[in-house]
């Protein structure tokens, strides 16, 4: 727990990259059960085959929370007080079963306040072809 | 599938209320497994007992996605084309194991465009005491 990165150790523009993961049936069905969102584009292969996507895709929020969670794990190196929230979240491309996502975080703003400060990260989740599938941002409070 | 609510049937200020659900260990452990986020405030009762919350709390994003999913289910009455994204999401109060959440959506803006339009909803997720635990917003494309 010692030697964690403090506010002063963080620079605007620095990036963190989360572990990559392949999304598939398990993720989609687990998320459907958790959220009650069984929209057929995610859970009905016959329906999805006739959609513009040609097959089932992951819920946008599923891709977002997996990416955000994997990024949060990278924050274990930082002296984090709390995650404050997330900015606007956009689903920019579909994630099909078998696609592999990677979350990227870039520091955009550091706002010191007393013995701590808020660090804003842009979140960009990409697929195995380097295409962005989700954009968002997060605000994290870190000790000074 | 007939008689679904179209864009013209929606009025600014109208509200939808999603089903309520009690969050507990199953939700938190399922979400931890899905996202890789095993931060001890959520998964370690001993650690959490010593925190300002006095016990384990749900991940903020867990409360958000369950609330958003339960609201999305209410949109089955509308002629929805796609969910476009979510606005800034804030975690305003902790959700403890055994707390019951209810998602509320209020139409704030209707922007017609060609044969469809974007409907913006404010999202307010409350607990059993009526306290707001998550605020967010969502943009949904609906046929005219």
Automatic annotation (TrEMBL), chains A, B:
Pfam families: MaoC_dehydratas. Residues 19-120 form the MaoC-like domain. PANTHER family: BETA-METHYLMALYL-COA DEHYDRATASE, MONOAMINE OXIDASE-RELATED. Belongs to the enoyl-CoA hydratase/isomerase family. This is MaoC-like domain-containing protein. It comes from Euzebya pacifica.
